[in-house]
């Protein structure tokens, strides 16, 4: 029986699940080192306050407390501030002022975790409250409380960023037959991954070597940052090893550097013993990087027949107390300028202003490519607002306007070059699958009876695979990625890559890429990531960049191996290399299938019988700098029914058609889409973090922060089209974030559609029963 290769397109079962489903995964909190100490963090109860005094004496008297660290202790080491990934700086511990509730104020190191917690309780801080600003619009007004007194610039404005043709867009709007405008608020949310953040830092004073086990999505970048920030303390990059073990979900929230990491490293360097810090759930939600928090004002200009012409968008981005977003340096608003979406606008202008407020820092790419969710939601909502204005079916309006398949590669008016797409095909498949025409008839009948049913569409375009090094870097480090492949003499393979899975199944899918390229069964291929001592340098996994970037590196490294292997095969077959072809996963003499060699035979020869003059061995490395990003897309259709008594929105059906080019593993992609859809449902109907006027967090526990469970999650129906990326080595585009990006607009559009006859044009997400019921009551249709 032929051996199963399990290459591209096969639903190979996830290799990593063997340990995950048996409870044998190894997470940071599973790391236990001899003599290890535990750290806990005291946090500010106030959102803005002067620290008059920190009294650590009672904490230090508790048996088992080894040390208490305050900002003043860090000043001589110059570690009280650290750089953020967006070239801002962030306090590690404050010396005089706290800027948001739950900010780190002091750290206690103890022999047991519970003793460290007792130490935290015993720290006495004398605060003098200061005025608080939580609303970024108020923060930008003259006379507002200044959040960052450390800056020379005495206001809360961080940066202004704009792209497009302002004058040309203004003229298009002045001349337009139809203009629609919509203000939208995309609220602050949190990734809430199953595993919170944590670190075990272990400094070996004899070797001068720091080993760090850490929940990071980007271990190499962290190693470089540690060397740059703490080089003056003797931490050199070759003596720093960052190990990112199994990770229970990252979604962008494990890209930034948190003060807890720095404190644990500092504590281990000072004590010479390992120090563990594991954040608890409340700390994770209350203090770690948030996502979204965009106040958007968007306008669309069109002809009366619905032809879209121009887009004008003004946004205020709330970054909290420090700009600790993880965007590529060149783009402070991430890739928000994908906002023209699936439509060929002639003119567009986008401007974003960043603001400081007394809230936790961040602005991370929560399962999206740096602000793409905000962009997709805005344009897909706006298209529906236009459809209502000109009384056109939203599906028809989209079909009328889509960038046609013949226009690819398509240069968007805001500067992107979309690689490939067929938007009409995806929407048609979604409409056929859900039975769109029938649903519209049903809706009309129900409306006559006073029943509330809505149909919402989202035909989004994504942008993933950061990125081409000419435009993409983080703190100056270019955003390439890497793969190293070693074929052992017996034909077994070790693959090491610069990215790092947090549950996406890389050990399986990257093995499948190599299996396809080398004809070696996926079962014989081990994939390792996340250890900077062994993996080649890479920028890590976030923003769905693994497949577009490291996937490209893996395919090219495998092809380098195949090139060399071909020469060895020619030697073994006593043929001219030009007469050798790679067919059916074997090297064959052209036209003589009987004369062939498998990759395993060639691998053995690479160490035992390679041609004279050739280097022994069968290994290759590739650092892949993608020529472009990839542009996955999809069309989602959602059907909702609304309870006129409670205002509750029930998702009756949701069809998701996705296109991520060549699919490596259909089962894994399906899983990515299911999870992504649930993470899109979450902000549409449930999740948000709000603050009161004093900066007290209102959604700081899972009692208030409504993470959808299996009970709330509808039955997702998925389908696909396949439009390969022309520039990616295997034609693949990313997929991990598509559903989170595309789903919120489909759901919001469905709810607005159900209520449109009442004059409703927009409801800000999350669309809670309370908001809907108020609309029903105001219109006298509540039951
Ligand atoms: O960067 P991240 O791993 O989060 O996202 P991704 O590149 O979109 O991939 C998510 C998972 O789906 C990985 O295991 C990929 O290899 C897999 N995938 C696939 O099988 N086929 C694609 N065309 C894209 C992703």
Describe the protein's architecture and organization.
- The structure is a single chain.
- The chain is α+β, with helices and mostly antiparallel strands.
- The chain folds into three domains: 2-22 and 481-624, Aldehyde Oxidoreductase, domain 4; 31-130 and 192-287, Aldehyde Oxidoreductase, domain 3 (Alpha-Beta Complex), CATH 3.90.1170; 423-463 and 630-783, Aldehyde oxidase/xanthine dehydrogenase, molybdopterin binding domain (Aldehyde Oxidoreductase, domain 4, 2-Layer Sandwich).
- Residues 504-506, 509, 541, 544-547, 660-665, 668-669, 672, 732-736 line the site of cytidine-5'-diphosphate (CDP).
**Global mean pLDDT:** 97
Poorly predicted segments: none
CATH topology of the largest domain: Aldehyde Oxidoreductase, domain 3
Which sheet architecture does the biggest sheet show? 7 strands, mixed
Structural class: alpha+beta
Instruction: Output the strand order for the largest sheet.
Output: 3-7-1-14-11-12-13
The end-to-end span amounts to 66 Å
Q: How many β-strands, per DSSP?
A: 34
Helical percent range? 25-40%
Bound molecules: cytidine-5'-diphosphate
Radius of gyration: 28 Å
**How many distinct domains?**
3
């Amino acid at each position: 029986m032929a051996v199963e290769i399990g290459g591209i397109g096969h639903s190979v079962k996830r290799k990593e699940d063997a340990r995950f489903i048996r409870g044998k995964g190894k997470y940071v909190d599973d790391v236990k080192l001899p003599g290890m100490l535990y750290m806990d963090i005291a946090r500010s109860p106030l959102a803005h306050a002067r620290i008059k005094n920190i009294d650590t004496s009672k904490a230090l008297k508790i048996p088992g407390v080894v040390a208490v660290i305050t900002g003043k202790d860090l000043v001589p080491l110059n570690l009280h501030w650290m750089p953020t990934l967006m070239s801002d700086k962030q306090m590690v511990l404050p010396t005089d002022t706290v800027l948001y509730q739950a900010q780190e104020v002091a750290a206690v190191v103890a022999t047991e975790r519970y003793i460290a917690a007792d130490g935290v309780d015993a720290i006495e801080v004398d605060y003098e409250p200061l005025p608080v600003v939580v609303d970024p619009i108020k923060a930008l007004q003259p006379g507002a409380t200044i959040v960052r007194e450390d800056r020379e610039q005495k206001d809360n404005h961080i940066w202004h960023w704009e792209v497009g043709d302002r004058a040309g867009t203004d003229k298009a709007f002045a001349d337009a037959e139809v203009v629609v405008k919509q203000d939208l608020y995309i609220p602050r949310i949190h990734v809430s991954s199953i595993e919170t953040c944590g670190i075990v830092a272990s400094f070996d004073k004899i070797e001068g070597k720091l080993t760090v086990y850490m929940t990071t999505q980007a271990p190499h970048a962290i190693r470089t940052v540690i060397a740059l920030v703490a080089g003056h303390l003797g931490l050199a990059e070759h003596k720093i090893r960052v190990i990112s073990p199994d990770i229970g979900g990252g979604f962008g929230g494990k890209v930034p550097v948190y003060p807890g990491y720095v404190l644990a490293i500092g504590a281990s360097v000072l004590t010479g013993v390992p120090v563990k810090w594991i954040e608890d759930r409340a700390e994770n939600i209350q203090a770690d990087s948030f996502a979204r928090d965009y106040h958007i004002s968007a306008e669309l200009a069109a002809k009366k027949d619905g032809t879209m012409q121009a887009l004008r968008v003004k946004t205020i981005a709330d970054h909290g107390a420090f700009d600790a977003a993880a965007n590529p340096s060149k783009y402070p608003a991430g890739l928000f300028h994908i906002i023209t979406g699936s439509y060929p606008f002639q003119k567009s202008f986008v401007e974003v202003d960043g603001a400081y407020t007394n809230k936790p820092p961040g602005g991370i790419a929560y399962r999206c490519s740096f602000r793409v969710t905000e962009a997709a939601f805005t344009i897909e909502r706006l298209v529906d607002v236009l459809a209502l204005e000109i009384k056109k079916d939203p599906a028809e309006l989209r079909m009328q306007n889509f960038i046609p398949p013949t226009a690819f590669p398509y240069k968007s008016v805001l500067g992107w070059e979309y690689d490939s797409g067929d938007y009409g095909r995806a929407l048609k498949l979604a409409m056929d699958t859900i039975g769109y025409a029938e649903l519209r008839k049903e809706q009309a009948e129900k409306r006559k009876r006073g029943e509330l049913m809505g149909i919402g569409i989202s035909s989004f375009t994504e942008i993933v695979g950061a990125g081409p090094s000419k435009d993409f870097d983080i703190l100056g480090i270019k955003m390439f990625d890497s793969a190293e492949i070693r074929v052992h003499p017996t034909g077994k393979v070790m693959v090491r890559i610069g990215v790092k899975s947090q549950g996406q199944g890389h050990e399986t899918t990257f093995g499948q890429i190599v299996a396809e390229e080398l004809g070696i069964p996926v079962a014989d291929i081990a994939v390792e990531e996340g250890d900077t001592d062994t993996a080649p340098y890479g920028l890590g996994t976030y923003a769905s960049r693994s497949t577009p970037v490291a996937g490209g590196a893996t395919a090219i490294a495998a092809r380098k191996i195949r090139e060399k292997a071909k020469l060895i095969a020619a030697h073994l077959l006593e043929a001219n290399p030009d007469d050798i072809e790679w067919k059916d996963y074997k090297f064959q003499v052209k036209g003589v299938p009987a004369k062939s060699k498998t990759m395993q035979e060639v691998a053995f020869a690479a160490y035992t019988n390679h041609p004279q003059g050739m280097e022994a061995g069968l290994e290759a490395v590739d650092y892949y700098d993608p020529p472009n990003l990839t542009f996955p897309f999809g069309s989602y259709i959602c059907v909702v029914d609304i309870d006129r008594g409670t205002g509750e929105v029930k998702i009756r059906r949701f069809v998701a058609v996705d296109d991520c080019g060549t699919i490596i593993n259909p089962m894994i992609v399906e899983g990515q889409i299911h999870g992504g859809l649930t993470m899109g449902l979450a902000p549409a109907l449930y999740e948000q973090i709000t603050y009161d006027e004093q900066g007290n967090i209102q959604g700081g526990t899972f009692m208030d922060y409504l993470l959808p469970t299996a009970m709330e999650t509808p039955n997702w129906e998925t389908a696909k089209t396949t439009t390969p990326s022309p520039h990616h080595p295997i034609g693949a585009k990313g997929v991990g974030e598509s559903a989170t990006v595309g789903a919120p607009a489909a759901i919001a559009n469905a709810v607005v559609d159900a209520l449109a006859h009442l004059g409703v044009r927009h409801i800000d997400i999350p669309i809670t029963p309370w908001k809907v019921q108020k609309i029903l009551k105001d219109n006298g249709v509540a039951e």
